[in-house]
C-alpha cells in the first residue's frame, strides 16, 4: 500500500470523481473497511489477511482510479533543491489489483465482482477491449454465482447489503450493454 496520507487522498479522489459515474461501491461501508485495513496492517488482522485478496484488489482499483486526479510532489532531477508535481502510477495499482483479484478468482465474493467491474472500466478506458470483455464475463459469472440477479431481500435483511448487491448487479448489467 502507498503511504497512508497518499492512500487517503486517492480514496477521496475516487469517491469525488469516479464513483458518481459507476457507483458499484457503498462509500460508507468501503470507508469503514478501509479504515480497518490500516489498523490490521500493523497487527496482521482480518482485512490484510490472504483470504481477503479480492478486497485488497478492490482497494488497489480505487487507488488506480483515484490517481487520475491526484498530484504528488516528487524530486526533480534537474534541480537538487527543486521538486516537480507528478501523478501516482495508476498502472502499478492496476497491475497489483489484477494480481490480487485473479489470485482469488475461485472464491466468489462480492468484493471480487466489484474489483472486476472497476478493472473492466479501466481496461475499457485503456482501449484494451478484448481483455475488458474477458473481465466483464468473469464479473458477470461470479455475480450470477452469488445470486446478485435475484431479489436481495431473500439473502439478507441488511438494507445496506441489499443496496450493494443491487448496485453491483446493475453495474454488471450496464457494462455488458
Describe the structure.
The protein is mainly α and 177 residues long. It contains 7 helices and 2 strands. The chain has a two-stranded antiparallel ribbon with strand order 1-2. The radius of gyration is 17 Å and the shape is globular. It starts with a helix and ends with a helix. This is Xylanolytic transcriptional activator regulatory domain-containing protein. One of its GO terms (biological process) is DNA-templated transcription. Keywords: DNA-binding, Nucleus, Transcription, Transcription regulation.
Shape: globular
> Could you report the average pLDDT, rounded to the nearest whole number?
87
* Distance from first to last alpha carbon: 34 Å
Order of helices and strands: HHHEEHHHH
Give me the count of strands: 2
The fraction of residues assigned to DSSP E strands is under 5%
Range of helix content: 55-70%
Tell me the number of helical segments per DSSP (H or I, 4 or more residues long). Answer: 7
How would you summarize what this structure contains?
This protein has 177 residues and is mostly helical.
Topology:
Layout (H helix, E strand, L loop, with lengths): L3 H15 L8 H17 L9 H14 L5 E4 L7 E4 L3 H14 L6 H16 L3 H17 L13 H17 L2
Antiparallel strand pairs: 1-2
Q: Which structural traits does this protein have?
A:
mainly alpha, 177 residues, XnlR_reg_dom, two-stranded antiparallel ribbon
Amino acid at each position: 500500500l502507498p503511504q497512508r496520507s497518499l492512500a487517503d487522498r486517492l480514496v477521496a479522489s475516487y469517491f469525488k470523481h469516479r464513483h458518481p459515474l459507476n457507483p458499484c461501491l457503498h462509500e460508507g461501508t468501503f470507508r469503514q473497511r478501509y479504515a480497518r485495513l490500516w489498523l490490521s496492517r500493523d497487527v496482521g488482522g482480518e482485512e490484510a489477511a490472504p483470504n481477503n485478496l479480492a478486497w485488497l484488489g478492490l482497494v488497489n482499483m480505487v487507488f488506480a482510479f483515484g490517481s487520475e486526479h491526484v498530484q504528488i510532489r516528487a524530486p526533480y532531477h534537474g534541480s537538487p533543491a527543486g521538486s516537480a508535481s507528478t501523478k501516482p502510477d495508476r498502472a502499478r495499482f492496476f497491475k497489483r489489483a489484477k494480481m490480487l483479484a485473479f489470485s482469488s478468482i475461485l472464491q466468489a465474493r462480492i468484493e471480487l465482482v466489484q474489483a472486476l467491474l472497476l478493472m473492466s472500466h479501466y481496461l475499457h478506458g485503456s482501449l484494451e477491449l478484448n481483455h475488458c470483455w474477458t473481465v466483464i464475463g468473469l464479473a458477470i459469472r461470479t455475480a450470477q454465482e452469488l445470486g446478485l440477479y435475484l431479489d436481495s431481500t431473500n439473502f439478507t435483511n441488511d438494507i445496506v447489503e441489499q443496496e450493494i448487491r443491487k448496485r453491483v448487479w446493475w453495474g454488471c448489467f450496464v457494462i455488458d450493454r
